[in-house]
Write a structure and sequence with these properties.
Order of helices and strands: HEEEEEEHHHHEEEE
Oligomer: single chain
Number of helices: 5
Helix content: 10-25%
Largest sheet: 10 strands, antiparallel
Number of strands: 10
Structural class: alpha+beta
Shape: elongated
Strand order of the largest sheet: 5-4-3-2-6-1-7-8-9-10
Strand content: 25-35%
Radius of gyration: 19 Å
């Protein structure tokens, strides 16, 4: 297997992605920070266990439709809660309302189309028959991507992926859709039933990545926070 073949297969598997930033570009599709009128940052008097509430972002979920993410056409907001013991939790809020009804003092977000090149694990798991045959020649199964990554050509692919990774993005505040990152602390690359819907970028939260995931079958949301040392 040659590097050019791996890259060609990676480009075939590339997924559409949207980058959200503050530079005006078409209609407003979200808000970063600030405060929502319908869900203020002030802690209610009856919430004795909560120390603070912070609106992180709200996005218009209608823009996710072109990313093969089936969601209800209702805005999704992410809020950070800190309790009286300084424990942090990130919570998703999705209410039956139109995005146009959201009143927020945060920074308006605008979308730019981009492409998401797959990491090596995704290439092994979802690549075509050529990838399967190459892994078979190595005596490996598709899920043994960490062993396959030890080969010289795979290491070259990983270097190419690093050049195209969203981790190099220097302008946008968020990324929507696309292939998710395979982090060093992950035990396995998440299956297709779990899809990355949104991810904050270090331009917005330095050294912190917040991932919002969607379980396709149940349309349930989950949140993971990563610290990039």
């Amino acid at each position: 297997m040659k590097l050019e073949e791996l890259i060609a297969e990676g480009e075939r598997l590339s997924r559409p992605r949207l980058l959200l930033g503050a530079a005006p570009n078409g209609p407003c599709v979200g808000y970063w920070g600030g405060e929502r009128v319908d869900e203020p940052n002030s802690v209610p008097s009856y919430a004795h266990a909560i120390q603070s509430i912070q609106h992180i972002f709200t996005i218009d979920t209608r823009i996710l439709e072109g990313l093969d993410l089936p969601v209800r056409p209702e805005p999704v907001g992410l809020f950070r809660y800190v309790d009286v013991k300084d424990r942090v939790s990130n919570r998703i809020l999705q209410r039956p309302m139109a995005f146009e009804e959201v009143s927020c003092s945060g920074k308006p977000l605008y979308a730019t189309r981009a492409s998401s090149f797959p990491p090596f694990a995704a290439l092994c798991l979802h690549g075509g028959s050529g990838i399967a045959a190459w892994l078979d020649q190595l005596g490996l199964k598709r899920h043994e991507y960490e062993a396959a990554e030890a080969t010289p050509v795979a290491r070259e692919y990983v270097e190419e992926y690093a050049l195209r990774s969203v981790r190099r993005e220097r302008e946008a505040l968020m990324a929507l859709g696309g292939w998710h990152i395979f982090w060093p602390e992950d035990d396995f690359y998440a299956p297709m039933e779990m899809r990355l819907a949104a991810m904050t970028l270090p331009n917005a939260l330095p050294q912190t990545w917040i991932e919002v995931w969607l379980a396709l079958g149940r349309r349930n949301w989950s949140v993971r926070e990563r610290i990039d040392d």
